[in-house]
Design goal:
Blueprint (H helix, E strand, L loop, with lengths): L10 H10 L32 H14 L3 H26 L1
Length: 96
């Protein structure tokens, strides 16, 4: 007999719950069914970005050496920099 899955107040509460619990206590994975989500929309947005040609060439060269698409590498670089900038902002605010 599987346990009853609790109702969660929000996503954070659910995230905390699953950090400490195993889904096999609540879900019988043997009775699973494949689900299709036809109306699922991509969570990314297309933008236009102009880069100097030498910079783009260097980005493509680096991406090729890492065996990743250059747009994926650019997203990784932007994500890393955003994280660093927000951490810097947070540490300045906590010192104030």
């Amino acid at each position: 007999m599987k346990k009853t899955l609790p109702k969660f107040k929000n996503e954070d509460a659910e995230r905390e719950f699953w950090a400490d619990h195993d889904s096999t206590e609540f879900i019988d994975w043997r009775s699973r069914r494949r689900v299709t989500l036809p109306n699922l929309k991509p969570s990314s947005q297309t933008i236009s970005l102009r880069l100097p040609k030498p910079m783009l060439d260097r980005l493509k060269l680096l991406a090729n050496k890492r065996d990743v698409p250059y747009q994926s590498l650019l997203k990784m670089f932007v994500a890393e920099r955003l994280t660093a900038e927000f951490e810097k902002m947070d540490s300045k605010e906590s010192r104030s």
